[in-house]
Structure formats: C-alpha cells, structure tokens
Amino acid sequence: MNFTYRQRGFGPAPISFFTLGILFYLLWRIATLYPKWENTGTEATLSWDVFGYYLYLPAGIIYQDLSSLEFVDVIFPKYRPAGDFHHAVDADSGNKVMKYPIGMAVLYVPFFLLAHLVATFTGFPADGFSLPYQMAISYGSLVYAFLGLFLLRKVLLKYFSDRSVAIGLGVIVLATNYLNYVSFDGAMPHNYLFTVYVGILWLTIKWHENPKALYAFSLGLCIGLATIIRPIELMALLIPLLWGIYNRESLLDKLEKVWENRGHLGGLILGMFIMGMIQMAYWKVFSGHWLFYSYGEFGFDWLSPHIMDGLFSAKKGWLVYTPVMIFALIGFIPLYRLYKSIFWTLLIFMVLTIYVVYSWEIWWYGGSFGSRAMVQSYALLSIPLTLLIQELLGMWSTGWKVIAFGSMLLCADLNLIQTWQAHDSEGGWYADGPSRKYYWKTFATTRPQKADKKFLDIRYEYTPDPDAKIIALSSLGFEMDTTVIRSKGHAFEGNYSLVMGPTQDFSPTVEKVLASADLEHNTWLRVSAQTLYTQMEWNIWQQCQFITEIWNGETLRHRYAVRIQRLADPWQWHDLHYELPLYRKAQANDRLKVYFWNANGQKEVFVDNWRVELIQP
Fold first, then answer.
1. Are 421 and 185 in contact (CB under 8 A)?
2. Are 46 and 187 in contact (CB under 8 A)?
3. Is 420 exposed, middle or buried (0-12, 13-18, 19+ CB in 10 A)?
C-alpha cells in the first residue's frame, strides 16, 4: 500500500497549530528560567564543545587568526569555557586546525553577526564571547528549533490527523531529551541537526510529489550541511535515495522518475559539493590536506559496536533515558502493514544510525543527557510514533489507550525529572553517566542523598545482617604514627588525623594476603573511614580517592576507587564506607591493598578512624 499524502493547512488542523504554539512557549520559557547566556565558565552557552564549534567565527571575523589561534591565550582564562583548551590540534603544516567540523559555525553566522553589531555599538566587549554573543547563540538555537518543529508539523499533517500530530509533537518535545537539547543545551548540534533532518524529509516529500530542480539542489545543501556538522550524517543521503522503494515495481518506478529528472541529480550533488567544499577548503588551507582527521586517537569500533550499552545501559542508554521512543519503535509494525513505501527507508536508516552512533569508541558521548547522538533521528522517528498514536486513537480499545497514553505521560514526567536532575546543582546528576546502582538510587528523585554518590564508583551494596561476624583486619587512628603528615586541628576522635594533600599524595597502605578462611561463608570486605575536607575540589580527576585493590602476584585483578569530596559537604565529618563481595572477587593467596590517593589534587582531605574489616554472614 502506498503512502497517501494528506494536504492540510492551518485551517483544518487547529489542534496541532495551537499545540505547536504552546510547545514554542514552553521551550522558550524553560530556556529563560535557566538562562545559560548569563552563566559563566563551563555553564555558559559558549562552553565545552560549543566553544569549539563556534571558534571559527571569532577567529576568522574578529581576530583574523585561523592559523595560530593566539587570541585563545587571552580569551580562555578570561571566560574559562572548558577545563583545558582541546578544541584544536597541531597539523603538519604548523597551523592549528579546529577539532570540530565547521557546519555549526555556518549556522551560527547570522546570530554571531547580529551580536557583533550589538557589542560594537554598546559597552560590551566586542570579543566574540561577551553577553551579546552568548545571548544571540542561545536565542538563535531556539529559532532553529521553532523552524524544525514548524516544518515537522507540516510533514506529519500530510499523513496523519490533527489530533495525532498534536500528541506526537507533544511527545517529542516533552518526553524525550530533545527538550534538553533545545532549552538547556540548544547550541549543541543535535537541535540544529533535528531541524536539518526535518528539512531533508520535507524536501524529499516535495520532490517526490512534484520534482523540481530547486528541491533537489536544496536537498543537496541540507545533506551537505548535515555532513559538515557531523560527518557521519552523510548517511542522510539514504533518505531521498530510498524514499518510496519497497518492492521491484517501486524500484523501477523510482529509477524511471530519477532518469526523467536526471538533471536534478546533478543539482543534488552540486548542493552537497558546495557545502562540503566549505569544510574541505578550510582543511586544505590550514592543514595542507583536503581531508583531515582531527579527533586524534578516538575512532570507531566498527567490528565491535556498543549497541547493547548504547540502548540499555544505565550509563547513557537511549531507551533507559528516553523510554518513550519504544513507542516509536513499536510504530514500525503498523508502518510496515500500512505504508511499506517508506517503511524500508526509515528502517534501514534507523538500523544504520544505531550501528554507526554506537560504534563510536566513546559511545556515551561524554557529558550529555541521555543518548544525545540520537536526538536528530527523532525527526524520522516522529513518523512511526505519530502513526502508532493515530492507531491508538482510532482503532484500539479504551484499556489499551489508557495504558499507552498513561505510559507516555509517565515518560514525559520522568524526562522532566531527569532534565531537572541534570541541571539542578543538587540534582545528583553525573555528566559522564552513572552506574546502574546509582541510577536506581536516584531514580525519579530531585533531591538524592550525597552519600549515594559512592555508587558512581562502586556498584555493590551490602545488605546489613545483624548476625554477621565482623573480623577486623586493620584499624588506624594516627595518634602515634609520626611517619605521616598529621593534623592536630582536625580530628574525629583523639588528637590527630591523617592529612591527604599536595604534600602527601599517597597514604600508608593496608595490605593482607588472603587465606581460604577469609573467603568462606560469602565473605564481604568493608573499608571505612571518617573523612573531612574544608575546600571543595571540583575537578573530579583530582578528588581524593579511597582505593581497594586485589592483586594476584604482580597482576591487578580488581581496583575500586571512591571519590571523597562529592560525597559530603565541606566542614563536616562523613562516615565513608563501602563493601565488596570478596568471595566473588578474590581467591586464596590474593593480596589485598587499601589506601588513599589524593590524585595530585591541591586541596586537603583529613582521614580518621580508618578500618578494614571482613563480614561473614
């Protein structure tokens, strides 16, 4: 059965029209409640990856220095957009070459120029990073989002009822991490790519309805633009190429249509070439090569993709953090039954997308909310999602409607709570992804316990047993130990505590060779200490760690390290402890080592009442 187009305008579709207006307002309102343009440092709009995407514009237009980027030596300490400057690499030509592709800078241009004009004629520094620039890129990101949703409504109304489209738009905006990548992290590529993909869908449909050279050329521009934002988006070319093909007859019809309009294929290629040359010309001038790989040692694990982790891991699993997309995947069932003409296009594209996205070595994509690399694919997934919604509204029983729409509502609620967690200072969010244990400890709560942050590092939790036998292996109070640096001003008990700091990076080590008796009766290991700090170490890589290692000869079998500073507030003693199932992790004659490491941090941590114990239930 061919896909039937429904010609609809604003008149016959008031519900989705007003829904779109409400969604526009909500996205804008949420963005203004958390105005990143007013933030500083790594919480500002132009920070972390966005700083790198944007850097082309001030470098080329304001400072006219795309080769050495010397101005960064002044800008970076002034605005502190990231922990360190990693946004360019050294090329063989002797120049600095931007790490990130140029496509986002192309889309930022109109808002950058507006901001530069405002800064030039006001009292703000016209340096590319002051408040007008931060605001312009933030509001520009909302403009692109509004354009994408406006076009998506037009796409969906060609196929589905007004009510179905209204609900589908609401689900995309409120129940997925698209919300985060518009209202909070809108300057990241995913919001922009979502809009570009909607444009590719719209132009593909328009060309198949009424082939015009302008549509084909515009398609080439959009596909080329997506590619110079993220090179793997070149696979967007599959959308117009496969659209409408579902059997031999449709394939022959498609080939005939392309042949009759073969000049349009040249327009498509020309559009892609124009966009591609923007990136390639930059590479040629500054690296000396038409093609240049700027991501260094990072790459793709093509033969061992991380698909299961990418979909289901508590760390950043797509369907864990955006479970409502399960409904979009279910929607492929009626899509196959009713509309084979686009089923195969969307299915092939989504399978390839999942494979490519989760073949990336850093499959969790660093500091992000959920699986951000999937956000742009929601433009295509909106079709099976909205089809399933229409099927629910028109065909299924009341019970199924209650279950399905109730589940979607719960998914929206979960998305809002987790978005809150990701940006609230006390939300307990961990940008690089939590462990499964920590995910469930903080599930659907806006005020998690700080002490539970140990489960970011440790995934085991011992269930207390009042009848358990406790065997003490070591107990250190540092009252008499003069071989270490001690503090007399900070002590939990007695007069002294151990000082971990820049002058004492490692503590003494508690060691024990494990005997068979130590591993009997499902033995657990408990390490505990009272810890205190007075100055927060914000760099998690330099936070003091409480470490347990299990060695077999010269081979390290297991290593566990809990970061101390993120578990409690300053100036209060914290009872830090964690347990490990020793009977599962160690063997007789293995060597146990327990110690503290300050990780080259410059802030002091005080340790008292350090204990190492075995628990035998």
1. no
2. yes
3. middle
